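agent> Task received from the user: take the single chain below, predict its 3D structure, and emit structure tokens. No templates, no multimer pairing.
agent> Plan: (1) validate residues, (2) run structure prediction, (3) serialize to tokens, (4) report one or two observations.
agent> Step 1 OK, no nonstandard residues flagged.
tool_call: predict_structure(input=
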Amino acid sequence: MSNHLSTSSNINNSRPFDVHVWSEYPEFNKLIEKLWPKYFPSDDSTVLPGPKPKATSKVHFKTLLLDLYVCWMTDPNMYLGVHMSNSGWKVNSRYNALHLSERMIGIIKELVAVDILEFQKGHQGTLTRIRANRQLQLLFRDLKFPISEVVFDYMRDPIILRGMSEEPDEMEVHTSSKKRKKPTLEYDDTPETIRMRGVLNKYNELLNETRLDVFSLEEPYFERSEKKAGKEEKVVRNYITGRNHFVRRVFNNESWELGGRFYGGWWQHISKELRPDIMINDNPVVEIDFNAMHIALLQAEVAEKPELDLVVVKGGEPQQGSDFFQKFSASRLIDTDDAPNANDDPYTLNGSIFPHKNDFDQRKAVKGLVLMAINAVSRKSAFSAFRSDQAKGDPLKKMKNIELSQLLDAFIKKHPKLEPFLCTGKGLELMYLDSRIAESVIERLTNKSIPVLCVHDSFIVADDQKHELLRAMEHACNQVIGRSIASDYTKQGHADWFEESNRTRKIPKWRLKKVVRCEGYMRRMGLNPYDEFHEWIS
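)
tool_result: status=success, residues=538
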């Protein structure tokens, strides 16, 4: 529990107010019963009349104080971002299960007036920031209320449908990364949305019961740089707490066949350097990813297709293919050998296009450019997006359109059948396919009570479950596109190194790396930091 008061006023250290927190813990309810009549003596907290359901003022007050408490427990210096306009509160939205309304604005103003809340007015499209001031923090400090008693994502809908425009999202709660999002749309449930929600609810229940952490982090957060168009780069903080374990599935452009990827987990934002330090239930992990997945999906689409609409899975029975994936069906067992050659890296060109660039830089440029071309609607937009994606100071950022066009033409020469799919906005369709594969992997492992962390085209599991993951990935690919996709993996704790031998040549060897659990991790896991905490990964 936090024992100190706020000392910093950095409003960038913030996250949106969470409309999906709840608790019936007795100690917290006592605090609400003490404060409610003190600050709102004339409010009878009745439900207002009208056709739309609305939460009582007291429920608004309790939800606000609960998230302020969670925020303070996580980081005493953190702010909550809140809407202070009526349009920011959609009382009847499926993304607002507690039916919170514009009543919250009046409650916030009253708490600011009685010096309970610190208030930083929003400007230029940013949300207003609030946090508990010293008086409320002192009450929080005396409160015996563990975070484990908070229900995160209470009644939250994990299936999200977004619209076409680039307007900011109004009600959905996200992590500290607040990119501009397409508006969330209301929709009527179908058998398919009900099925998808069932898969995710079961998956999120498993994640909620799983201890996820990073053994090298003294504090339960990591920082990363984020840059929005037209704004200065800033450092945002991501917390590895229970509230960031909830995974949702997001569909795009008003379609259930575009997008559909899985978002929400903090592990999706962690750096590649820190990702191997993830622990699942205090077990080291392995990450397995599909090689050049979208290229493989396009190759599957242009491959010769049989007449019969059957998908045959290794070790299983032929299954009738769905309408969605009829064009990817297979009438026979497709082995890995029939898939594109795993040793033929699609991003490695036949020769050097620019002699002044080494093979590594050329491959990096080709990969980045092709991925942009898959998502872009024109070459010009692909080239622009490619340059924007490069880090400041990277020579690739200065590549001219004529150079990028030469690279793309060289890729097309190597893969001529893929040309019709480039610069046509194909990306969201491919995301839908890879999301179907990811869903199959998640569902299969969840049914076996095996926690898996999805990072779109890669998956993280405890090291002793890697074979189950490989089988799930192969099953999913055969089920969705009728063929296997080559994969590669990174084992936590392993590093390839070279040792000088006889001063004449270098011999590659594998070196096992120690897992050194830091004291902060040990405390979070309830382990004794003074015990021996070194182990070798076998």
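agent> Step 4: summary for the user.
Residues 1-156 form one domain.
agent> Done.
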